[in-house]
Amino acid sequence: MKHIVCIEDDPDVLDFLTILLNDHEYQVHPVLSSIEGVDTIRHTEADLVLLDLMMPGKSGWDIMREMRADPQLTHVPVLIVSACKEKVSRLLDPTFDSSIIGYVEKPFSPFTIRAQVENILNPKFSPTNQTNPLRPLTA
Q1: Domain limits of the chain?
Q2: CATH fold for domain 2-137
Q3: Which mean pLDDT values do the consecutive 10-residue runs of the chain (139 residues) have?
Q4: CB–CB of 82/92 below 8 Å?
Q5: What is the DSSP string of 92-108?
């Protein structure tokens, strides 16, 4: 079973993502408080992080900086799920952070999220088997 940590400050979006992705293949670890994000990633030995960028307390940017500073977490791929548009070009620059595997803009389609997660965690079964698809997806 693969572990997905979902860090999102909107409880409705967090619940939706948890219900959408929690199944026999994935166990979702929902995190409503960005302060607990990095600890949860570490303790669950996450295979993937779904990360909002705009959150109170610690932003998604802060969480990514902490992950990159921790040798135990540098390999964990991050899928950005955010309404943040002003810094998207920074995300899509592969020199910024190679662990950012993609970006899904809010509001999003459940099919888009599910397809991205499948492509990242089960690439050999994905019809769009691409490495590091650093491009925005819209619903």
Answers
A1: 2-137
A2: Rossmann fold (3.40.50)
A3: 96 96 93 94 96 90 90 93 70 61 87 93 61 46
A4: no
A5: T-TTT-TTEEEEEESS-
